[in-house]
Amino acid sequence: MRDKYILTAESVTEGHPDKLCDTIADSVLDACLKGDSSAHVACEVLAKAGKVLVAGEISAKIMPDIPSIVCRTIREAGYTGLNYEIEVITHNQSDDIAHAVREGVQTGAGDQGIVYGFACDETESYLPLPVILAHRLTRLLTNARKTGMIQGLRPDGKAQVSVEYSFDIPVRLASVVLSCQHAPEKDLGQLQAELMDHVIQPALRELPPDVETEILINPSGRFVYGGFEADTGLTGRKLMVDTYGGLAPHGGGALSCKDSTKVDRSGAYMARYIAKSIVSVGLADRCTVALAYAIGKAEPVAVNVDTDGTGEYRDDVLEQAVRAVFDLTPAGMRHTLGLDKPIFAQFCNYGHFTHPDAPWEQTDKAEVLCNACRIKEAGVSDR
């Protein structure tokens, strides 16, 4: 336990080019699942300066109108009055992968992968405070634009929050960085004042800035050009924003743009579901759950629970209880979390684990897990 250190997390708005590509990909996935709950989708999006490329493997009974989805998603993100050249390159999922995920009674994993889930008792959302504050900043920034609370805002933006800890407790706000796209005629002094009043101060109510907190608003100056016109957008480039801000391990696979047979997504959701269940019911103060899969195999090849010395039970007891309570096969995760439904686009912005109504954010099996721990500990003690 260190006596003093700083942890940092970032977030981006739904108008950020990479996140917009994620939203397009997940909107395509949702459209496929609406017509076919067993659709297999691995869809990547690349966008730059008036052109959007959608490419991947899609096997679905009803193929959606992808160009229309692209245009609608870009428009809903706040970019209007722009025309895009849209190219779609897709084909069916490869026969080899299709065979692997359909072979036998159990659905096999659609790829190998290592995934991590994390939870801690630091906030009501069971996430580290810097993660919560960074996402709150970008949410409020987007809300200020959409409601007209701050005139002249544009869709692109990002935030970064650094929190100082003392003996694992957040004690002060070290720095805040907020960058937001704006109209060319917007006065920067007025913009900074409005952002302080309507975004920064409300977002940081748990840990308000003090006299030594460094607050940087558009530190590079003007931010007029944004979105695809300024930067290339690509799916899967905001992995830390999507998960735990780099404050917990990450297996390297993107969450968006793939259906639930891809354990990069379903396994990461299940690992978070398990970790949050453990912490929410008081079995540990913090918990990291690791799952590893092999392509074509249903059961994970490894399950690991690490409570960093804060657990009410030994980690091996928790691991046994997790295996007993949770179905960790792709089919089981799909059923438990309802991942055959078109729910993904609504949860892909502002972190996948900040939405209290997301299926993987529920704690409905926490008490069952507690009972399983008691049983498993008794079994371990008897040996």
Order of helices and strands: EHEEHEHEHEEHEEHHEEHHH
CATH topology of the domain at 113-121 and 260-382: GMP Synthetase, Chain A, domain 3
Q: Number of helix segments?
A: 10
Mean pLDDT: 93
Tell me the number of strands: 11
User: How are the strands ordered across the major sheet?
Assistant: 1-6-7-8
> Which CATH class of the domain at 113-121 and 260-382?
Alpha Beta
* Low-pLDDT runs: none
Which percent bin holds the helix content?
25-40%
CATH architecture of the domain at 113-121 and 260-382: 2-Layer Sandwich
Radius of gyration: 22 Å
Shape: flat
The N- to C-terminal Cα distance equals 34 Å
Q: Tell me about the largest β-sheet.
A: 4 strands, mixed
Strand content: 15-25%
Give me the secondary-structure category. alpha+beta
Description:
With 383 residues, this protein is of the alpha+beta class. Among the domains are: 5-12 and 129-225, 2-Layer Sandwich (GMP Synthetase, Chain A, domain 3), CATH 3.30.300; 113-121 and 260-382, GMP Synthetase, Chain A, domain 3. The chain is 34% helix and 23% strand. The chain has helices spanning 17-35, 66-76, 95-102, 129-147, 188-203, 239-242, 263-280, 315-325, 330-337, 366-382; strands spanning 5-12, 40-48, 51-59, 85-91, 113-120, 153-166, 169-182, 214-217, 233-234, 286-293, 302-306. The strands form 3 sheets. Strands 1-6-7-8 form a 4-stranded mixed beta sheet. The relative contact order is 0.17. The model has no long low-confidence stretch (mean pLDDT 93).
Short description:
By secondary structure, the chain is α+β, with helices and mostly antiparallel strands. It contains 10 helices and 11 strands.
